[in-house]
Design a protein that fits this description.
There is one protein chain. This protein is an alpha/beta fold and about 200 residues long. It is built from six helices and eleven strands. The chain has helices at about 15-30, 90-100, 110-115, 130-140, 165-175, 180-190; strands at about 5-10, 40-45, 50, 60, 65, 75, 105, 125, 145, 150, 155-160. The strands form three sheets. The protein has a seven-stranded mixed beta sheet, with helices on both faces. The protein has a two-stranded antiparallel ribbon with strand order 3-4. Helix 4 (about 130-140) links the parallel strand 8 (about 125) and strand 9. Helix 1 packs across helix 6 (about 180-190). It is globular, with a radius of gyration of 15 Å. The relative contact order is 0.17.
C-alpha cells in the first residue's frame, strides 16, 4: 500500500513550499524499482475553489477538507499564513489529522499553523529564518531552533524556509524507504541535498 501524502494548499501559499515536497515524493515513487507506487501524493484545500499562490500561480485542489482520502503523511506549507492561522476549522482539521497520521510536517511558516493547533507544544521546531523571532514570541511553548534545515520530532517534522522543504521531504523518504532511495531521488532532481548535522 502506498503512503498517502496530503499537501494542504491555501491562498498566498509559497509555491515551492508545496511543489518541492510534491516533486520529491512523486519522483521517489517514479524511480523506485517496483511496479507498486510508494507514495500517493495529492493536494487538499479548504474547498475545491481555485487557490492562488503568493506569486500568483493558480492551483486547482484535488480534495477539500470535508472530503479526501485517508492521510498517512500531512505536509503544511508556508507562505502568508495570517489568514489561515485565524481559521478555527482549518486549525481544527490540522489538529485532528495530526492525531491520525504517521507524520505531520511543515515547511517554512507552515510551522505557525502547527503551533496554533498545539501540535508543537513542548517540541522543537524551525521555520524560515525571517520568522524565527515571531514563532518564538507567539508560541513560547515551542523550542524554536535556527540554523538547521529541518527538525525531526518523530511524528512531527518541521523545516526552515522554502527550499528546505525539499531537504525535509528527502529526509522523510529516507525515513520511510531508506537512504539509497532518498539519495537517488535527490540525484534525479539534481538537488544538492543538505542533511542536518
Amino acid at each position: 500500500m502506498p503512503v498517502n501524502v496530503a499537501i494542504y494548499i491555501f491562498d498566498d501559499v509559497e509555491a515551492l513550499d508545496f511543489s518541492g515536497p510534491y516533486e520529491v515524493f512523486t519522483s521517489a515513487s517514479r524511480i523506485h524499482d517496483s511496479e507498486d507506487s510508494l507514495f500517493n501524493v495529492f493536494t487538499v484545500a479548504e474547498s475545491l475553489n481555485l487557490v492562488r499562490s503568493r506569486a500568483g500561480m493558480k492551483v486547482m485542489p484535488e480534495f477539500s477538507l470535508s472530503e479526501h482520502p485517508d492521510i498517512d503523511c500531512l505536509i503544511i506549507p508556508g507562505g502568508v499564513v495570517s489568514n489561515e492561522i485565524c481559521k478555527e476549522h482549518v486549525i481544527h482539521w490540522i489538529y485532528e489529522q495530526s492525531k491520525r497520521v504517521m507524520i505531520t510536517g511543515s515547511v517554512c511558516t507552515g510551522a505557525f499553523l502547527l503551533a496554533q493547533a498545539g501540535i508543537l507544544d513542548d517540541k522543537s521546531a524551525t521555520t524560515h529564518w525571517e520568522d524565527i523571532s515571531y514563532l518564538r514570541s507567539m508560541f513560547p511553548q515551542v523550542s524554536v531552533k535556527e540554523g538547521v534545515r529541518w527538525v525531526d520530532e518523530g511524528n512531527v517534522v518541521s523545516s526552515a524556509g522554502i527550499s528546505a522543504g525539499i531537504d525535509m521531504s528527502l529526509h522523510l523518504v529516507e525515513r520511510l524507504h531508506g537512504k539509497q532511495l532518498a539519495e537517488r531521488t535527490a540525484k534525479q532532481l539534481e538537488f544538492d541535498w543538505t542533511k542536518n548535522i
